[in-house]
Amino acid sequence: MTPTAEEIKEAVRDRYAGAARRVAASCCAPAAADCCSAEPAGFGASAYTDLAPGEVPDAARLASLGCGNPTAIAGLKPGERVLDLGSGGGLDVFLAARQVGPTGFVYGLDMTDEMLALARANQVAAGVKNAEFRKGEIEAVPLPDASVDVIISNCVINLSTDKPAVFREAHRVLAPGGRLAVSDIVVLRPPSAEERADLASWAGCVAGALTVDEYLAGLASAGFKEATVTPTHAYGPTAASALITATA
How many angstroms separate the CA atoms of 64 and 18, rounded? Predict the structure, then answer.
């Protein structure tokens, strides 16, 4: 039986809440450097190949569950306003905050209390002033129209059961000419009925993933222009990580 949208949301929330608790409880301890399972190359913290030691709090790095590095493709400029959809432990927020500088600002949006608590603690540890973490869902962004210049996200949009709403909200909060630059999972074939019925597959970023054509069509329907999807590397038998860019 196909799970409801609320059941899927709770499965996703539980997965990321558990990840935040594990990081907060043990992954930052000096003697527990290997407590978190290693991610495949290009996933999780391994996607950030240019991070210098101590550049971000260990808890932000270890809590990264993404499939790429959106700040590497966003082309952020000093003074820009940025929104990170599904900001998790805050890694991309902190990197973006550094790139936009003191005249810019970054919002991190997440629906999971445990991740928000971890991100706010990481913000204090990192000494980042030009950022704010807000609780909310990516289908209903708690920001005014045309309030940001750039939207980034790392392997989160696939988790939503209402992607048209995500794309509409992203277009709404972007200023004219703003841009979206995300890393996400795209599938090489539509997920099967069995996969879509599996809550673990939803939380694991496969059951809710779109094909490239579906992604491009969704962005176009929301009003985005010049959208491109660039596959980067394979992940399992049916999905690949991709970089998606578009202009509002």
Answer: 13
CB 133 within 8 A of CB 110: yes
**CATH: 3.40.1740.10, 3.90.226.10, 3.40.50.150, 3.40.718.10. Which one for 5-247?**
3.40.50.150
Q: CA-to-CA distance for 159 and 9, rounded, in angstroms?
A: 8
Q: What is the mean predicted confidence (pLDDT) over 99-107?
A: 98
Tokens representing residue 106 in the block: 């970054």
**pTM for the structure as a whole:** 0.90
Chain mean position to CA 32? 26
CB 74 within 8 A of CB 65: no
Residue 3 to residue 80: CA distance in whole angstroms = 39
Please state the length of the chain. 248
The CA distance from 148 to 145, in Å, is: 8
Q: Which two tokens stand for residue 40?
A: 């495949």
Q: How confident is the model over 179-238, as pLDDT tens digits?
A: 999 999 999 888 888 888 888 888 888 889 999 999 999 999 999 999 999 988 877 777
